[in-house]
Design a protein that fits this description.
Layout lengths: L6 E2 L4 E4 L24 E3 L4 E4 L8 E4 L2 E2 L3 H6 L3 E9 L5 E6 L7 H9 L3 E3 L1 E3 L2 E14 L2
Parallel strand pairs: 1-6, 4-11
Antiparallel strand pairs: 2-11, 3-4, 5-9, 7-8, 7-11, 10-11
Length: 143
Amino acid sequence: MTAAGMRAKTTDAVEAGALGDRLGAGGRSGAGDVDVGASGAASDGAETVFAEAAVDVPARLLAPSTVEYPAEARASGVEAEVPVEIVLDERGAVTSARSLRPAGYGFDEAALRAVRLLRFAPALRAGRAVRVRMRWPVVFRLR
């Protein structure tokens, strides 16, 4: 299993891990999202969601999921990296996910299905588990 814990059901490789380009305090994660203030917190209408840079202890992958390489992409010999923005709740469960850069060929749908099944140790801020917004890449490579 890869370090990030995702593999394709076939012999094709799928890797995932935390992206280096983190959303920092005062930044925006994309169209339709709320501003992140100086505290690194944003409200999604229900509860506070912290930017990954605003937590003391980042979320850590506990339970990987299986990613199936899209048949259309495999047949066309196409590889891709799909950056996905995810929101984790206080238990480390993925509560929302969206593709940040569409890749086509069924990659986006496969990546979203896989990340919704991931389980994390929750992010901590001031010793308490908090909701966090972070980026997670899903990399599809043919072997």
